[in-house]
């Protein structure tokens, strides 16, 4: 691989006020929001994460970036568009200069949406006339890369990775331009590896050429973190950017010289600790298998709940007995085959609703009995738990693993909350996360 040329300095931004957040992120699920928030914290930014459409009539102080967590990945396209626009308008109302629509680095979506419809709506209202909108799912830190417009998960094509078994958005194609074009009538283009290697000026020139040809979206190749820095400089002045969590690091690098040093984060709450796992990903299964070798676990069976058994009470009795002796795990996680059997018996929608409602009720019970540190695995599960607990705002702290930061909630009682996307973290995360962040 050839070395990259020296990049030109970031554009001057003396017009920015230090007391106004420069970036507003609209994330399509709660764990994805935590992922992007952690990336920004690692880049030296002061970050607040909100849950649901925020009330920003009084903007947060001493904050560089606001990350809005929505649960729009698997709702209807119309609902996703409505909520995303409301979040974007709230962010713009408090003065953010740049909007970022964050979706999963594996481009979780179907041919009907929701990435395309949401991006179209945001483009229509917020993008500058004639300016292309970048599409950058690539996140090398999570081993998600794009080459020739094709998305890889590690060394596997996306369609050959574990994402082909996703219960809600199974991915059967790896070509990002083709995936997006199925969801929008706006022409989709591509900027390849060689242009990005040439630097930000070359990328901006290619963006201009594509925009002149009426291309609206541009999928960009991303193989390394250095490519993210090049792209961050290239889209420095774009009103709207879309992507996974990786590109926000490039945007932060371009802005860093104008952002005041971050204050020392407050110590996060400690105390009794538990894990709630609803994800059925390969990594979450591996994390559970590692944890159960040393610590007690309880399985929530949605079929048993549907049959009327009081599984929630059983889980809380298990917690009451074991919580004083260290972290515990309560999960509904199962193999892809077991998930299919459950969905056939209950129906996909009912199975998901029972699982989320049960785990959220258990989380509420855990907090009621004094649990103050909670890891939640799975995007849908995280959304259900956060809503049940009434969490609206959290300060973002240190990452336990790339894409998995600890949050300190601002509602009473204050909690340490870690929202983990199913595939993130290593096999020992459930054992290691606590000590690393005390």
Structural overview:
The chain is of the alpha/beta class and 438 residues long. The protein has two domains: 23-258, Rossmann fold, CATH 3.40.50.10840; 273-436, Four-carbon acid sugar kinase, nucleotide binding domain (Molybdenum Cofactor Biosythetic Enzyme, Chain A). Helix content is 38%, strand content 19%. It is built from 15 helices and 18 strands. The strands form two sheets. The chain has a 15-stranded mixed beta sheet, sandwiched between helices. Strands 6-7-8 form a three-stranded antiparallel beta sheet, with no helix packed on it. α12 crosses α13 and α13 crosses α14 (379-389). The radius of gyration is 21 Å and the shape is globular. The two termini are 41 Å apart. Mean pLDDT is 88; it is low at 1-17.
Layout of helices and strands, plus pairs?
Blueprint: E1 23-27, H1 30-42, E2 47-51, E3 65-69, H2 77-93, E4 98-102, H3 115-126, E5 133-136, E6 144-147, E7 150-153, E8 156-157, H4 176-181, E9 188-191, H5 193-197, H6 200-212, E10 217-220, H7 225-234, E11 240-243, H8 246-255, E12 273-277, H9 282-292, E13 297-299, H10 302-306, H11 311-322, E14 328-331, H12 336-346, H13 348-368, E15 373-377, H14 379-389, E16 393-401, E17 404-409, E18 416-420, H15 429-436
Parallel strand pairs: 1-3, 1-4, 2-3, 4-11, 5-10, 5-11, 9-10, 12-14, 12-15, 13-14, 15-18
Antiparallel strand pairs: 2-16, 6-7, 7-8, 16-17, 17-18
């Amino acid at each position: 691989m050839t070395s990259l040329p020296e990049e030109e300095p970031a554009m001057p931004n003396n017009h920015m006020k230090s007391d106004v957040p420069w970036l507003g992120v609209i994330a399509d699920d709660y764990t994805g929001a935590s992922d992007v928030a952690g990336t920004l914290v690692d880049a030296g930014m002061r970050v607040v994460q909100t849950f649901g459409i925020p009330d920003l009539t009084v903007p947060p102080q001493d904050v560089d970036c606001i990350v809005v967590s929505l649960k729009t990945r698997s709702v209807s396209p119309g609902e996703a568009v409505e909520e995303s626009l409301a979040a974007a308008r709230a962010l713009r109302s408090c003065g953010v200069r740049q909007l970022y629509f964050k979706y999963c680095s594996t481009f979780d979506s179907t041919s009907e949406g929701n990435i395309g419809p949401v991006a179209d709506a945001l483009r229509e209202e917020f993008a500058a006339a004639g300016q292309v909108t970048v599409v950058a799912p690539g996140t090398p830190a999570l081993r998600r890369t794009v080459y020739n417009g094709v998305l890889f998960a590690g060394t596997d094509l996306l369609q050959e990775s574990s994402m082909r078994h996703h219960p809600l958005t199974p991915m059967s194609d790896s070509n990002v331009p083709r995936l997006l074009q199925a969801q929008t009538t706006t022409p989709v283009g591509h900027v390849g590896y060689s242009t990005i290697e040439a630097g930000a000026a070359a990328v901006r020139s290619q963006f201009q050429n594509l925009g002149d040809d009426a291309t609206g979206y541009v999928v960009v190749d991303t193989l390394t973190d250095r490519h993210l820095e090049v792209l961050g400089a290239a889209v420095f002045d774009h009103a709207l950017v879309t992507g996974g969590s990786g590109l926000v690091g490039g945007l932060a690098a371009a802005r860093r010289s104008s952002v005041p040093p971050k204050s020392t984060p407050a110590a996060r709450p400690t105390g009794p600790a538990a894990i709630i796992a609803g994800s059925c990903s390969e990594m979450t299964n591996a994390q559970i298998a590692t944890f159960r070798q040393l610590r007690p676990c309880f399985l929530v069976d949605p079929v048993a709940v549907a049959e009327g058994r009081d599984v929630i009470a059983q889980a809380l009795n298990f917690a009451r007995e074991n919580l004083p002796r260290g972290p515990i795990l309560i999960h509904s996680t199962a193999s892809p085959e077991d998930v299919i059997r459950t969905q056939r018996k209950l129906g996909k929608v009912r199975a998901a609703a029972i699982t989320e409602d049960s785990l959220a009720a258990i989380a509420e019970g855990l907090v009621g009995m004094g649990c103050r540190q909670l890891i939640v695995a799975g995007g849908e599960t995280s959304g259900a738990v956060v809503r049940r607990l009434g969490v609206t705002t959290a300060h973002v702290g240190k990452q336990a693993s790339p894409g998995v930061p600890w949050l300190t909630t601002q509602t009473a009682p204050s909690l340490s909350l870690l929202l983990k996307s199913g595939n993130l973290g290593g096999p020992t995360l459930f054992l290691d996360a606590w000590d690393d962040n005390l």
